[in-house]
Structures are given as structure tokens and as C-alpha cells.
Amino acid sequence: MIRLRRGTVIEVVGERPGAVEVTVEVGGDAGGGEGGLGGGEGGSEGGRTLARAIAYPSLTGPIRPGDQVLLNTTAAWLGLGTGGMHFVISVEGTSGLEAEGAGRTMKLRYTPHQVPVLAAEEEGSPHRAALEQASTLGGTPVVWVPLHSMVGPAVAGAKAAGAARVAYAMTDGAALPSALSRLTAALRSSELLDSVVSCGQAFGGDLEAVNVFTGLLAGGIAAGADVIVVGDGPGNTGTNTIWGASDIESAMSLNAAAILGGRAVAALRISFADLRERHRGVSHHSVTALSRVALAPVHVAVPSVRDDEVRQAIWSALRDGGLEEKHQLVEVTGQPALDLLADRGIQPESMGRGVAEDPVFFLAAGAAGVLAGRMAAGGQSSRGEGTPENKQLEL
Q1: Which neighbouring-strand residues pair with 91?
Q2: Is residue 122 one of the residues assigned to a domain?
């Protein structure tokens, strides 16, 4: 069962292509309080409170101050959800919405909000012929990121290392509307990200794809990217189990990249600020994904760090996980990615922590982008002689 409440739009607080963020006044009742603007559970029985909500006009129609709206408040009520926002189901008084475009591929299939899109590979798409004939990515580097917050450094790293065009293939293991991501909107407006491809049930990208295979092909062929970053949208799921995490499934994108003849690059999830033991140092999710999910050898970007103790902890975890024997481990700097993000006014954040609080996390994502960008630009070979410790790429 979902938790529904009615509300009134007070003001529009932010807009980006495909999404409108609003402040709503929500009516309280015996069902409990609503998540207020300050976070947590606010309000009281019979009272009213202000909360943040997001609407996708392609699903709800236009939304303006004064509109009466029906809200799904379930995630905020449970203390979950990206940003603690409610989601607008419908705007009262809206009727006669018409589907736009020639697409016949349904996403959010068999739900009340199912929406038609023009998939890049379907009849009527200008890219159909090229995608139908394509059998390979032709060695295009494909960077897999375990978390959406790593997309920014990965994209910036690729650009900093010489990639001309970068596409992001958003898989459908987390958020489905691509417009939910403030990060990709910022990357687009700062000219770091050139195209978004929404794959599977995800929707709203510059290009739509039926699955991750055609999503990667669309990124390389239709969007003309020489580096593709792939991973889930915002709001990943974890259950504190080995297999019950959305990034474990998205790691299958590494296999798709290999099958399609791309050069797969894995970004490591590393944190020395996360209080959870399973995610401290190299996350157990990264070890599981690379030791048991990735079936073909991939390039694993290991961030170059100055602290010898931190560096030793990273390499020890990789060796203990058996990754040294299975994959090509490459130590590479991620700093150019962070420098470029700062230059464009983008401050990456993950779970409330920024670069100052958890630098290695963002350096790891940046390193993967730098490695892919150098591969795309035909720079120094990603393979070198000697032990993994000596395999370093510096700009």
C-alpha cells in the first residue's frame, strides 16, 4: 500500500528539464505527520505542514502555485527517499493530456503512469538503422560507477583527460525519471556531460533505450560519445547483504560493455569517512561486483593517494579480494576531475559528505574517468610493465 495525501502548491522552488520542485502545504490526519522542510517527521494530527515535492510534467501536466495536488508521501514518511521529497501523482483539474512524439515503446510499463517514448532502436527513430547495423562499440571506454554521486567526477575526469564527448547511460536499478538528478542537470549546463541515455524502465534522457546494451550503443553511436559512463540514477538500494544491493546488478553493465567490444573501466567505491564497516576502505560491494559479477577482465581504476597507510589499505583489500589476478589494476590520479568540477562550480556530494569530508571517494570516481579519457584520447597505454603499484597514469 502507498501513503497518499493531498496538498496545495505554495511556490515553485526549482525547475530543470523534465522536473519541477515545489513547496507544498500538506494536510495532516490521523495517519501521522509529513516530512517537513527541516527533515524528519513534522506536523501533528489534524495540522498542516510545509514539505518539498517534485513533479514530472510529462506525467502530471503543468504545475503552478495554488494547484491542488495528490502526493505519494510514503518514502518521506518512512524516513527514506532521495532528499526526503514527496512525489506529485496528479494535479487536480488537469485533463486531456496528450502523448507527444511518435514513440511506441512504453516505460513504467503497466503502471498508472506508463509513458510512451521513442526508443533509439525502434521504428521511426533516426538512429534505428545505425543501431541495427552496429555490432560493436569499437573499443569505446565504458566507465561503470557503483553510485550516482560518482557520475560527476567520472564525467569530469574523462573530459579533463581529453575526451571530446561524454554520455551517461542511466540504468534502471534506482531512480527511473532521469530528471530527478540535479547532478546530471548541472553537468549538462556546465558542458561537461553531452548526452543522457535512459535505459530499461528509466526514462526522460536525451535518448531512450530498451536495455543497457542498446543504451551503450546509443551513447557511442547516436550520441557520438568517446567515453560512456554507466550506472544507476539517484537513490540506490542496499540491504546490508552480499547480493541485495542495486549496484551489484548495475555491475552487469561491465559484462554488457565487454560483450559489445567496449573497454570496460570500473570505478571503485572507497570511503574512509563512512562509519559502516562494510563500506569503509574498499566497499564490499565493489569487491563482490568485480570478483563475482564481472565475468570478463576489466580495467580497475585505483586512485593515487599520498597517504601511504590509506594506499596500503586500498591495495590490500584489492589483493585480498582476488582482483589483482582477475583484472587489470591501474593506479591513476583523480585530482584533475575534482579540479575541473571546482572550476565549473560543481560541488560533488555523497550521503551528505563532500570532497573535504571524504576525498578518496571522489578521487576514485575521478580516477576512473581520467583513465577512460586517456584511453579515448589515445594517450599513455592503460597497460604497463611491472607490478600494479608501478602502473600509474599522471596528467
Answers
A1: 69
A2: no
